[in-house]
Design brief:
The chain is mostly helical. It contains 6 helices and 4 strands; from the N terminus they run H-H-H-E-E-E-E-H-H-H.
Length: 286
């Protein structure tokens, strides 16, 4: 029997400290919801989790970029929808003016409406913006925009549609307006000129149709990209959760077990501290 060093008490105290540390870690995990609170909990898991978090953040931003791209494409397509409507009105006026029953006064009225429509086409094409950016190329085209439409050599829209630098989508920014559609020399002053204008307008309608088709294809591409990004983000978030988040049922089970052990250890600590008291009984018998 010893009284200088209570080995049983020291052992019990050491075990009590270990259990208390384990309980503290379990409480951190239960209160935070994370299995990995610090790197020491799972260094490899933390590295993988942080990489996934970076990718998830990039994917979420890419989804917002795609939505912005859809907005820009819809803005351009909406503007061209109005241009199409005005071109159809010009076709009607051209066919009307080609009729030999019109006198000079009637033709002047047709010319006035034609000029007003052309002015509005130019205004729409020059003043269609999305977030301060011109949707159509404002510079003068090298050639008229007739079939097939020619995209601008510079200034194409580039959308970042992924979490890496190579995941981009380019949408051409077209020259649009009266000169680009070859409408600036069109006249309705005589039946012959009006007849010539009908063919010019048909080409302009076709050109605008093809540009609108490009915007439509871009929108479909962006919609599919958004759906793919959404699924990828969901799956990656689930994978990151499995690595980083606490399994509450398992952790509560561990905490309950540690709590029972802690209570038992405290009881044993009391018993270990009582052992040296038996020496006093021997000494009292002297």
């Amino acid at each position: 029997m010893r009284i200088k060093n209570n080995i049983a008490g020291i052992n019990t105290s050491r075990n009590q400290g270990i259990v208390n540390n384990q309980m503290a870690k379990s409480l951190e995990k239960l209160s935070s919801g994370y299995r990995i609170v610090r790197a020491g909990d799972d260094a490899a898991g933390l590295a993988i989790s942080e990489e996934m978090r970076s990718q998830i953040a990039g994917l979420n931003q890419a989804m917002r970029n795609v939505n912005d791209g859809v907005g820009m494409v819809n803005t351009g397509e909406g503007a061209l929808q109005e241009v199409h409507a005005m071109l159809h009105r010009l076709e009607t006026l051209a066919i009307e003016s080609a009729n030999g029953t019109y006198n000079s006064i009637a033709r002047e009225s047709v010319e006035e409406e034609k000029d007003a429509i052309l002015e509005e086409i130019d205004r729409i094409c020059k003043n269609t913006y999305f977030n301060g950016n011109e949707v159509f190329d404002p510079t003068e085209p090298k050639e008229p925009l007739v079939k097939p439409p020619q995209p601008s050599e510079k200034g194409d829209f580039v959308f970042q549609i992924g979490s890496t630098d190579d995941q981009i989508m380019e949408v051409p920014r077209y020259h649009m307006g009266v000169k680009a559609l070859w409408l600036d020399q069109m006249e309705f002053g005589t039946p012959q000129k009006a007849n010539d204008a009908i063919d010019t307008l048909a080409q302009a309608v076709q050109a605008v149709t093809e540009v609108r088709s490009t915007f439509g294809a871009a929108q479909n591409h962006l919609d599919c990209t958004y759906n793919n990004l959404s699924v990828t983000t969901e799956n990656m978030t689930a994978a990151e959760s499995r690595i980083r988040d606490t399994n509450m049922a398992d952790e509560i089970t561990k905490f309950t077990s540690q709590k029972i052990i802690s209570q038992a250890t405290m009881s044993m600590q009391s018993q270990a501290n009582a052992i040296p008291q038996s020496v006093l009984t021997l000494l009292q018998g002297l």
